[in-house]
Amino acid sequence: MLTSARRKECLVSKAETLPVADGVATRVLCTEVLEHVDDPAWVLRELVRIGAAGSIYLITVPDPVGERVQQKIAPPFYFKQPNHLRIFSRDEFATTVAEAGLEITHRGSYGFFWSV
Questions:
Q1: 38 burial via Cβ count (<10 Å: 0-12, 13-18, 19+)
Q2: Across the chain, how many H-helices and E-strands are there?
């Protein structure tokens, strides 16, 4: 069965203050962002604010195993602003997500550049 495409909107803004009304998004994608921001908990609260009840979120951060390898081989600026400000442990990421009011229903782990 064919259906018409759903409405989508792409915006570019600072992650801490999204120009989106409360509770309008049914799908929220935040991939490889939280390691770059000063306050990941704030950004997650902002994502929760824009999500409608029952929204589905896809939130990713680099796996700490790959990031530790990167620390040894990447140039020093890779782990300075505006690049990676932190390495999330798996437990720290899970706690940060839960404290924002979200539930992890699936968790995966991939090496860096997995999405290419």
A1: exposed
A2: 3, 2
Q: What is the pTM of this model?
A: 0.83
Q: Roughly how many angstroms between the first and final C-alpha of the chain, as a whole number?
A: 31
**Distance between CA atoms of residues 67 and 62, nearest Å:** 7
Which residue from 80, 18, 98 is spatially nearest to 29, judged by alpha carbons? 18
**Other beta carbons within 10 Å of 61:** 23
Most confidently modeled range among 15-19, 64-68, 87-91, 106-110: 87-91
Q: What is residue 63's three-state secondary structure?
A: coil
CA distance 72 to 101: 34
